[in-house]
Structures are given as C-alpha cells and as structure tokens.
Amino acid sequence: YNRMCGGGADSRGRPTESSNYDGTLTLSGFEIRRLGWARRQVIDPTTDRRDVRLAPLYGTSEVALIPLGAGSAGDTLSLEYRRRANGFDAFPPQETDNPFYGRIYRDLPAEGLLVTLSHGEPTGPPGRYLYDFVPPSNRLVRAGSRCDGTSDGCAGPYAPWRDDMLRPDGISQITPWTRPNVSGYTHYPAGVEPNWFAVTDVRQVDDQLAFDVIADVRRSAFTITADSWMGVETDGVVFREPVRVANGATLRVGEGATVSFSGGLAVEPGAQFVCEPGATCRGVE
Q: How many angstroms separate the CA atoms of 277 and 19, rounded?
C-alpha cells in the first residue's frame, strides 16, 4: 500500500532513506482494486443505464468499472466516490520547522466522483498497468495552496482543488469530447475510434453519488451540460436525435470536422455553440 501510493515509508510507517514522509496520505479505488479489496460494479457502456449509485469508497470499497473499446489509452474507466470525512483523506496538518513551508495540509482537498484510467489488470505484475486522472477540464487547479509558509507555492490559505473531480455542484458530465474524454485522450490520435458513451448528470442522492450512462450519444437525445469539443475524429458523424447545449456550457466543433445534427440542435439561453473556421456544421439554424 505504501509502496504503490508513493508514501516513502516502509510497511510499518517508518521513513525510508529517500524520503522524510511519514506514510501514504490517501488510498484510491485503484489501490483498493490492486489489493483485491474492491467491491466491483461493472457497467456495460453499450447499454443505457440510469441512476447508477456509488456509496463512499471507504466503508464499502465500492468502485464502478466501465470497460473501454479497443484502441483506447486505458482499458478501464474507474469511478469512485471520494470523501474527506475519513482517516485516509483527512490527515491533520503537519507542522514543520522550516518557515519556507510552514504548515502543510495533507488531506485530500476535494470530494466527489473521482474518474481514473487504468491499463491492464491492477493485480498484475508491476509495469503492466498505467494510472491516470481524467479531469474533465484537463487541469488540476488549486483555489489556494497546501501550505502557509513563505514559499511561492504557499500563496494563500488552504482551499480545495477545483475542476479535478466531477461534483454535483460543479462539472457534472464527461463526454466523448471533453478533454480528456471518456477514452482518456486530451486529443484523439489519428485513426482512433472514440468511445461514444457519456457519464452524465452526476448528482448526490442521500449519502451516495448517482449518475447516468448514455451508451451512444450519436443515437440518443442528449444534453451537453459541460464544456465539450469535437475534433477531426468526429468528422462525418451524424447525430440522429436532438442535441441540447445547456445553460453555462459551450460546445465547439473544431477545424477539419464535418458534423451533422439531423435531429436538431438547441442552444439554451446562457449556452454557446461555436462552429470554428474550417469546420462544417450541418442542420444548425
């Protein structure tokens, strides 16, 4: 556990020669899967699913897994409900003698539906798997800092990260075009066929997170609720059912893409649709 998370301590929590950290700070669904503790909920991305529920990761070890299509960067999209109300993610601040860093906050500074990619069986030998975040905004941006000393990295009071998790009060959708997207790419490489499912309407229900899975956004009525982008990998795609861009979201079609909205495109007040120079957008009034 300590080795996988990079805590820099041996199995009894003692610092190693190469690190003065006193142990691993968080435990993700990936590590839980690798240890064989996960309670797996496998979701077929070729079938629409409504109201998929996830209980908090700690106390249930519940992880939802969505297998990806051939040619994807990872073979499994992993979804988990991370919270800060537990021992793993709520470590107390660490006081240091060096005023350059001052007090270092060590807890998990965000809460919500964490989306990751893994490649290969997580219980397999080292080197056969990859592990990466899929932040819908393609950024990990902190609203503040994680320390309060004089370091340039300690620019203000501690505050949670923004945009790195799907939250009911923030970004609530990950689509085939969000960067990175459900296939795990920031930009699709040439010749790659996208996965066409979307995870949408992330919401809190009692003590759980719920979301829907749309199997194929090309053949289903679909509302875009988060900023999304379509590039050349969508060239020639026809959306046969109505597509709606919701208030606060922007949909962009990039250069080199020809996209047809044969089912119609509705742009709500407060939303934007941008057909960039070099793109062709059909069925748009």
A: 51
94-95 vs 103-104, strand pairing mode: antiparallel
Cα 161 from Cα 167, distance rounded (Å): 12
Report the pLDDT value the prediction gives residue 76, as an integer from 0 to 100. Answer: 87
Q: Which residues are 282's β-sheet partners?
A: 260
Per-residue HEC secondary structure of 115-136 comes to: EEEECCCCCCCCCCCCEEECCC
At residue 216's C-alpha, the angle toward residues 213 and 217, to 5°, is 90
Strand order in the sheet with 173-174: 49-54, 208-214, 198-205, 173-174
- Tens of pLDDT, residue by residue over 172-205, are 899 998 877 888 887 888 888 889 999 999 999 9
User: Contact, 205 vs 230, CB < 8 A?
Assistant: no
**pLDDT at 109 > cutoff 90:** no
Listing DSSP states for 246-257 in one string gives: -TT-EEEE-TT-
